[in-house]
Amino acid sequence: MAATGSEKQGAKAYYVTTPIYYVNDAPHLGHAYTTVAGDVLTRWHRQRGEKVWYLTGTDEHGQKIMRTAEANGVTPQAWADKLVTEAWQPLWEHLDIANDDFIRTTQKRHTDRVQEFVQDLYDKGEIYKGGYEGPYCVGCEEYKLPGELLDGEGEYAGQKLCAIHKKPVEILSEENYFFKLSEYSEKLLAHYEANPGFIQPESARNEVLNFVRQGLQDLSISRSTFDWGVKVPWDDKHVIYVWVDALLNYATAVGYNENPGKFESTFPADVHLVGKDILRFHAIIWPAMLMAQGLPLPGKVAANGWLMVGGEKMSKSNLTGIKPQDLTSHFGVDAYRWYFLRAIAFGQDGSFSWEDFSARYTSELANDYGNLASRVAAMVGKYFGGELPAATADGDAEKAIHEGLAKAVAEADRKIGEELDFQGGILAVFDFVKQVNGYITEQEPWKVAKDDSPEGKARLATILYTAAESLRAVAVLLNPVMPETSQKLWDSLGAEPALGALADQKVQESATWGLLPAGSTVTKGAVLFPRLEEKPAA
Fold it and tell me: What does the record give as the reaction this protein catalyses (predicted)?
């Protein structure tokens, strides 16, 4: 889906990436969590009027993909094509993800540039040939240190397990090419020191610092025991290590060595969103590779926590891989987008439960937000024939609403746009929604309507205009989170055409009071958040 919205011409794009996801299986909630977060972040910056570039995609090389394809009786390429076209891209469309590009690591625009990048490092003396033997997790596509392994029990008794996948590691011995990662320990530590916000959250930063301070080992950047990958350009008996291949997508997708203008106006990423299990690749290996190549480093590597079910990380290997469609079919896409960012503090682990989702949907979306929109539209229809009246009798109660909105906008803009605190930003908006609900309860427009005097009519008009104008601002603020719902509310407020398209509304300017014109036709449209049916049978 292509991005829209006004952009500042000539400025560097605000560039956000998700990890590129393995195509060994269909996406689950964990993948969607990171992708929705990136979508909300980039939509927010678009509504600041900024030039934005949002990248996601799929990682299609490596031993894990090869084995999955073999188990399904097809070639790795055929397997990747099937998963991308039938599972990954359709889900992002379903979840209303407005990515600007979708890169696949089997595309020639990527593979050619990867070979050029690695060849250049080899020519500079950053890569050498050597041997290595050690425990290897196919699921992680990574050699493991002894301290990173678990002792197996039960059917795996006597074996060493990957702490993430809970599966036995394999002892691999092969002659590979190595990147001189050990030479970058001090340079990385200096960068972390000079840029304390480079790795987030703080717990992730501390983990990386401790790891690097112990000293880095040179990185095996090729494999010779299988052939599904990008060939090492000077030795076709080897393929490039899948993680070196994968990380380079952030450069190849925006024109590295191919489109200098695009590359200069986009690279490096302002934010790499990653799962904490792949933090070291992004916070250690990726910046070291860029340093070796003399390229600028990303602005921020932000690690989100794990989604947990029954105390276990949500994943296919743990059999907790719930499909997003299992939830959107019941709660709706917008509620889905809202829930995980609202319920879980980004950067921390969080537990999902159907019961919690249902409770929050009913309390916050249906009762607080949806009911407010419905009540206001109904009263404008009942008392003013659907034509929004002008506010001519503002007082202290209205001043409090104006101030509450200004506070909500500033807080949400800071938390979402700068701090990646999606939960805090959403809560700031919903605190304002609750304030408006309280305002209506205190002002009792249904009682004021009984006063037929000019003063009574002016007071009623002011109350309803204040409530409707508040909803206009809420529609703008929640548009990055719930675009379909915001558009429905926008249309019901009669905001078009006087204000223009919702996507062109600036989040910071939503605090400006009085942008909803008096005389707008307010209609009571479809219920924003319908009552939930019974939970589907398991």
Answer: tRNA(Met) + L-methionine + ATP = L-methionyl-tRNA(Met) + AMP + diphosphate
How many H-runs (helices) and E-runs (strands) does the chain carry? 21, 18
d(CA 242, CA 67): 14
451: number of Cβ within 10 Å: 13
pLDDT tens digit sequence for 39-75: 999 999 999 999 999 999 999 998 889 999 999 999 9
Whole-angstrom CA distances from 86 to 94, 98, 385 are 12, 18, 49
CA angle 92-93-97, nearest 5°?
A: 60
272 annotated among ligand-binding-site residues: no
Closest CA to 127 of 63, 222, 216: 222
How is residue 272 written in tokens? 């790499």
Here the tokens at position 200 are 């987030």
Residues belonging to the active site: 28, 31, 137, 140, 162, 165, 313, 316
> What's the maximum distance between 2 C-alpha atoms anywhere in the chain?
91
Residue 402 assigned to a binding site: no
| Side-chain half-sphere exposure of 243, counting CA atoms within 13 A | 20
- Is the alpha carbon torsion for 110, 115, 120, 122 positive or negative? positive
With helix as H, strand as E and coil as C, how does 309-374 read? ECCEECCCCCCCCCCHHHHHHHHCHHHHHHHHHHHCCCCCCEECCHHHHHHHHHHHHHHHHHHHHH
CA–CA dist 355, 520 (Å, integer): 40
Q: What is the pLDDT of residues 505-536, one digit of tens each?
A: 999 999 999 999 999 999 998 899 999 987 66
**Residue pLDDT, tens place only, 149-205:** 888 888 888 888 887 778 888 887 778 999 999 999 999 999 999 999 999 999 999
Distance CA 397, CA 433 (A): 15
238 is in an annotated binding site: no
What does the pLDDT read at residue 500?
80
pLDDT band (50, 70, 90) for residue 345:
very high
**What pLDDT is recorded for position 310?**
60
HEC states along 14-49? Answer: EEEEEEEEECCCCCCHHHHHHHHHHHHHHHHHHCCC
In the sheet that holds 219-220, the strands lie side by side as: 142-143, 127-137, 170-179, 219-220
Query: Is 162 labelled as part of a ligand binding site?
Result: yes
Residue 309 phi, psi dihedral angles, 5° rounding: -135, 120
Residue 132, beta-bridge partner list = 174
